[in-house]
Recover the amino acids of this structure.
């Protein structure tokens, strides 16, 4: 069988990437449809500064690689995903990548054993002693033990449809300044699946200002939700508002039929806040990312 490479170039390619991610997702996977929608949905195709290649057979995607910073002197940073049932496609993708990005670093979740095996076959290795920045995967079971979100004096609610997108995008920019998220980019992302406003939770102060949020993404096929991203305005922090937004989003997942939710956050000592926040909402860490070079 011939596996051919195609670069992500528009909405059709994005649909194929989302289908591939949904079809191959497992409870120990790094990438969820929400990651793809957040990264590429604002552009309806490739994100600026990235190149995404997909390997297909008869129109069915079997592997994908996204390269960030290919022009950097120290090499590109790659994300890599492949169908567990087709190690040949993983090998084909990595053979191409070694030529396209000779000094690459590839990050995967340590539980993605089939990807680690493919990287090892390609001659890449990980440093077990690497204590640099890494991401820690957390998950929570969506059952009756979820506490209700009750921040005193604040209203926790979903976004009021697409009409509220300018306020919602402005909140993101205020929290994460400088940010490239424009009203138009947010509107583009919200115009297509898997975005749904009932999973886009905001926190409103007594004066009606939006001050915190949690953006949720729900994969109906796998009954799994993802949180990405989350934030609170600096002057409203340390009041439990992010936790309240997270809990409200988890309840929305559960009401939609979800049975699990995941979040990937920094786990190293350089950014310790997420390690303290997510366990308070019921999340348990289960794996970290590893970098192969």
């Amino acid at each position: 069988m011939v596996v051919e490479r195609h670069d992500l170039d528009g909405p059709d390619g994005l649909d194929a990437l989302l289908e591939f991610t949904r079809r191959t997702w497992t409870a120990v996977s790094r990438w969820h449809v929400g990651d793809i929608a957040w990264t590429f949905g604002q552009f309806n195709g490739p994100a600026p500064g990235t190149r995404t290649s997909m390997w297909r057979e008869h129109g069915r995607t079997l592997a994908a690689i996204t390269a960030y910073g290919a022009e950097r002197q120290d090499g590109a940073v790659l994300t890599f995903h492949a169908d567990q049932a087709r190690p040949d496609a993983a090998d084909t993708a990595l053979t191409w990548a070694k030529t396209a990005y000779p000094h690459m670093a590839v990050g995967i979740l340590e539980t993605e054993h089939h990807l680690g095996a493919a990287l090892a076959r390609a001659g890449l290795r990980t440093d077990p002693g690497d204590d640099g920045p890494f991401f820690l995967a957390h998950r929570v079971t969506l059952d009756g033990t979820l506490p209700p979100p009750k921040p005193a004096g604040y209203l926790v609610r979903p976004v009021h449809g697409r009409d509220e997108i300018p306020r919602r995008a402005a909140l993101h920019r205020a929290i994460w300044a400088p940010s490239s998220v424009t009203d138009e980019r947010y509107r583009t992302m919200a115009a297509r699946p898997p975005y749904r406003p009932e999973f886009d939770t905001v926190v409103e102060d007594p004066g009606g200002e939006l001050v915190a949020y949690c953006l949720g993404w729900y994969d109906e096929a796998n009954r799994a939700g993802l949180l990405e991203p989350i934030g609170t305005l600096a002057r409203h922090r340390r009041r439990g508002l992010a936790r309240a937004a997270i809990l409200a989003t988890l309840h929305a997942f559960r009401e939609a039929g979800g049975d699990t939710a995941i979040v990937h956050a920094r786990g190293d000592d350089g950014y310790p806040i997420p390690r303290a926040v997510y366990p308070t909402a019921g999340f348990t860490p289960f794996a970290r990312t590893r970098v192969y070079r």
Summary: The chain has eight helices and twelve strands. The first helix runs from residue 11 to 24. The mean pLDDT is 95. The two ends are 29 Å apart (CA to CA).
